[in-house]
Amino acid sequence: MSTNNQPDLQKKGDDPKRTVQICEVPGNDGKMSDSLRWFAFMSYGVGHVLNDLVASMWFTYALVFYHYVMQLSSINAGAVVLVGQLTDAVATAAIGVLSDNVNIYCTDRYGRRKTWHLFGSVLVFISLPFAFSPPVLPQVEGSELNTALYYCFFIVFFQIGWASIENSHMTLASDLTPLRDERTALLSIRYSFTVFANILVYIVTWVVLRSNDANKTQFGPLERKEFQIVILVIMIVGAMTTIIFHIGVREPLANNRMNRELLMTETEAERAANRFCSIFKRFTLYQTAVVYMCSRITVNMTLVFLPMYLQDYLKLTAEKLALLPLIMFLSSFGMSFLNKPMNMKFGRKYTYSFGVILSLGSAFWCYNGSGYSYANYQIYAVTVIIGIACSVVLVTSQALTTDFIGDKTHRGAFTFGLMSFTDKVCNGAVVMAVQSLHCEGCLSYYRDIMVYNWTIPSCLAFIAVISLPYGGRSSIQSNISEPQSNDTTDQTIIRNPVEKGQEVLPSNTVNS
């Protein structure tokens, strides 16, 4: 092994993992200081805030805005959301392939993932204000079809931008570090800021509604101005966090070159395993996709239909439609600090099972709850429990996806693109089906939808999780000894074998 601070590529016959620590910034000793390390971690976390703010508005208030405020029918409102989800699905998969395989001069210098992140941010800033505001041309509102098509036009662009940010940011977690626990830490920080972004949206919405006396009524056409104010706040906060991300995160450009060089030094067996179509031959891909898809359905459909459930079934005021989701995400935020230690101590499978149990408990309470006491008091406890469940299943499903990617970071964006494709298509299909089957006289319709959403996906994901060959409790302790090296001393890295079936990451415990 090389005696300098730059890692040499290992030829075939050496350690097949060929992992290198890529989150280091060259300095006096080649390591990142604690302050810079934490600034990079926090900068990575805020890099998804714009998407989280947009997603919170999209999943929680899209149907409310298009159906109750803009007065579109249930089917047309569902069709608008379906167009957005299908666009997001196709764009996520396409951007995943392009991000992994397209390298031009500017992306190689600035970073492939950061370039796509910047591209998506620009699209979102341009198109989002039009998607949640009254049509610029008044004559568009003369026809419901024209109104729906008008919003679909802008939604297509902002969903392409959203997919670009989502895919590049998620994949960057695998590029920044090869260590399993550090990736979990990055995803936990990311989710903490996701919860922060959602909380901010609900607080702003709640304050705006209270200041305009909307707290005494339900949502209607008079709330158009309130949505524009919330969108303005989202744009300002999103711009600031995007700038911090691009300044604070240094994408390891060496990783781009190393993946290409490693491919040139592979054996024939390794080259066959890394072919584009080889990923579809792995059964664990489909298991992981089911877990990711079901987790996203549970979280996203909770955001979509919780306001409909509160307004149509419990008959709560517009203020409560902002307050209760806020409480749900406050509980998620508190749980986000426990996700990493739970995954490290109990493993992915036990942690995910805990989230499934909470989700099923919320469904049971929701189905049996009724009356004044439930609508005014017990519903707060239900939202707290489902908030904790959403935090657990979402972070753990993302961590399982990074486990599946392992050290194959050269196709990380494509893998996340596949996961997101199934997620977006299924979410859009569910929204369209629910809105198409909705009947005005069915008073318990949205209650039943919430119960189904918290039970069926959870059970399917649980079956897929327990059947995965990895994700259990770590039965090993990996030690990495890195003696100080100089020009005449070799660096030595000692690793114990990884857990059987866990072909992915070294499970080193780190203090991140």
TrEMBL record:
Gene3D superfamilies: MFS general substrate transporter like domains (1.20.1250.20). The keyword Calcium does not apply. Residues 9-18 have a biased composition (Basic and acidic residues). One of its GO terms (biological process) is carbohydrate transport. Residues 1-20 are annotated as: Disordered. The keyword Transmembrane applies. Keywords: Membrane, Transmembrane, Transmembrane helix. The chain crosses the membrane at residues 41-69, 75-98, 118-136, 148-165, 186-209, 229-249, 289-309, 321-338, 350-367, 379-401, 413-434, 454-471. It holds the Pfam family MFS_2. InterPro entries: MFS_2 (IPR039672), MFS_trans_sf (IPR036259). One of its GO terms (cellular component) is plasma membrane. One of its GO terms (molecular function) is symporter activity. Belongs to the major facilitator superfamily. This is Major facilitator superfamily domain. It comes from Cinara cedri.
